[in-house]
Design brief:
82 residues, mainly alpha, 3 helices
Length: 82
C-alpha cells in the first residue's frame, strides 16, 4: 500500500509469533484488495473505469465509504478521487 509500518508484540514468544503471522497475513490480504499498484487488485480494476456495475469486496467498499466521508468533512481538501 506504499506505507511503512511496524509491529510491536508483547507476550510469550509463541503468542507473539502467532499474532505477528496473523497480522502479516491480514496485511497481505488487504494489500491484494486495496493496492493501486497491483494490476489485478479490485481497486485497480475499479480505477480502470470498467463500464456497468462493478462488484467490489466489502473491505474496499468500507474504505471507499470512509474516504468519501473524509472528503466531505474536509471540503474536498482530502480527495480519494485524485
Amino acid at each position: 500500500m506504499g506505507a511503512p509500518f511496524s509491529i510491536t508484540a508483547y507476550g510469550t514468544k509463541a503468542a507473539c509469533l502467532q499474532g505477528m503471522q496473523a497480522t502479516f497475513s491480514e496485511i497481505e490480504r488487504l494489500e491484494d484488495i486495496l493496492s493501486r499498484f497491483k494490476e489485478d487488485s479490485p481497486l485497480s480494476r475499479l480505477n480502470r473505469g470498467q463500464s456497468g456495475c462493478v462488484v467490489v469486496p466489502n473491505d474496499l467498499l468500507r474504505v471507499l465509504d470512509e474516504a468519501f466521508q473524509y472528503e466531505k468533512m474536509s471540503g474536498g481538501a482530502f480527495s480519494p478521487r485524485a
